[in-house]
Design brief:
By secondary structure, the chain is an alpha+beta fold. The protein has 2 domains: 29 residues; 87 residues, Histidine-containing Protein, Chain: A, CATH 3.30.1340.30. The protein is built from 3 helices and 5 strands. The strands form 2 sheets. A 3-stranded mixed beta sheet has the order 1-2-3. β2, α3 and β3 form a beta-alpha-beta unit. The termini are far apart.
């Protein structure tokens, strides 16, 4: 008889427990923030490589961390592929410049060739560009 009472109580408690679980899950789902709207697409048909270079240079000029390094960073773009040459003060700065380049509108990819220390003299296949050396075929776009 005692086992029968326990069995009845268990059967009565099961639906209540299930109801509480469903209510808790519903409450958690209701508190989730809505997804942000997708960013509008940018029309890149009119964007030129010069526009891309200018946008990245403007971001670098606006960042006080690069105030004394603008003449050591060359930004070039060909077919919306950005190449970064020169040197910066450490890996953190190298990553930041790469991030600025990747965030520019209409950039397909970024080739980050920035060094983290000053190199003296140009290697074969390079030419001087301000205080740095770049590939002979690259455009020199040192900022003032």
């Amino acid at each position: 008889m005692l086992n029968q009472n326990k069995s009845k109580k268990a059967w009565l408690l099961m639906p209540l427990t299930l109801l509480l679980l469903v209510g808790a899950l519903a409450a958690q789902t209701a508190n989730k923030p809505a997804r942000p709207a997708a960013a509008p697409r940018v029309d890149c048909s009119a964007a030129t490589d010069a526009d891309i270079v200018k946008e990245i240079q403007d971001k670098l000029k606006a960042d006080p961390a690069f105030k004394d390094q603008l003449k050591q960073i060359n930004v070039s773009s060909k077919n919306r592929i950005v190449t970064l040459n020169g040197w910066v003060k450490g890996d953190k700065a190298k990553l930041a410049v790469g991030k600025y380049a990747r965030s520019a509108k209409c950039v397909k990819s970024v080739v980050n060739k920035l060094a983290t220390r000053l190199k003296v003299g140009c290697s074969p296949g390079q030419k001087p560009c301000g205080d740095i050396c770049i590939d002979e075929k690259a455009d020199c776009n040192i900022m003032n």
